[in-house]
Write a structure and sequence with these properties.
Blueprint (H helix, E strand, L loop, with lengths): L1 E10 L5 H12 L2 E6 L5 E7 L1 H11 L7 E10 L8 E3 L2
Parallel strand pairs: 2-5
Antiparallel strand pairs: 1-3, 1-4, 2-3
Helix pairs in contact: 1-2
């Protein structure tokens, strides 16, 4: 198990990135959240089995079809076990 925080940069707002990320995370069985950042990026925290988190990170590197991802910065966090689902945070 691991938990990560990822900051996704590029054209990632207004292109259904958050909704698509929620669908992908749920498909992978990952819990956590995703939200828009004031700087135009997207931030997410995700927790789950290592291969599932790695698959979500790989998805984040391209996102939905209309997105143009330029960078994904990932940091490891302590596993919390507190999230029950993956949702959009506001």
């Amino acid at each position: 198990m691991k938990r990560i925080r990822a900051i996704v940069s590029g054209r990632v707002q207004g292109v259904a990135y958050r909704a698509s990320c929620v669908r992908e995370a749920r498909r992978l069985g990952v819990v956590g959240w995703v939200r828009n950042r004031p700087d135009g990026g997207v931030e997410l925290e995700a927790e789950g089995e290592d291969p599932r988190i790695d698959a979500l990170i790989a998805w984040c590197e391209h996102g939905p079809p209309a997105a143009r991802v330029t960078q994904v910065a990932v940091d490891a966090l302590p596993v919390t076990g507190t999230d029950a689902d993956f949702d959009v945070a506001y």
